[in-house]
Amino acid sequence: MGRTIKDFYFNGNTDVIFGEIHNYLISEGYEYLVFEGEQVFKKGHGLATGPTFIKISSSGGIVRTEAWMKYAVLPGVYASEIDLDSFVGSAVKGPVRKRFAWIEQLLLQHGAQPAQQGYFQQPYTPVQQQQPYAPAQPQYQQPQQQYQQSYAPAQPQYQQPYAPVQQEAPVFCMKCGERFQDGAAFCMKCGNKRQ
What we know:
Layout: E1 4-9, H1 14-27, E2 31-35, E3 38-43, E4 52-59, E5 62-74, E6 77-82, H2 90-109, E7 113-114
């Protein structure tokens, strides 16, 4: 008596899997509700047979799947939980086993690995807020490069701006037309004074 529980190691994004499971179970006639303080998928009301339950939860890289049936003493009055392996309620358990197996296959398709039997020694308590898994992204560091200044030849600096030496234009004698010697005050040919 109790619940059928299977645990899986899973480090992926559980939102995708939970969404697929939710859509599947809702299409199979289950309701998603809070029952006795737990968020579960529930089908049936216990009028002819006990209702069946499936619960999916995750914490710390483990996805836990649970399935059970409630033994109904009276409609809406339940005595205990019955796992999927016992003989009691076997007519109702067949479809629940099929749905539970579908969930297990979905988890395996998404890369989950079954945890060993007896992996958990302590009762499982789900964490209220689960951080979605995101693989660590490698931090790219740009190599530190030392850039040398490009070579620029030194520009000569002049104390005074360069100007070519101006030579005086040749001066000719007004009387005879002879050229005056540089710096001469008188014409060498006629003796005329330079003006």
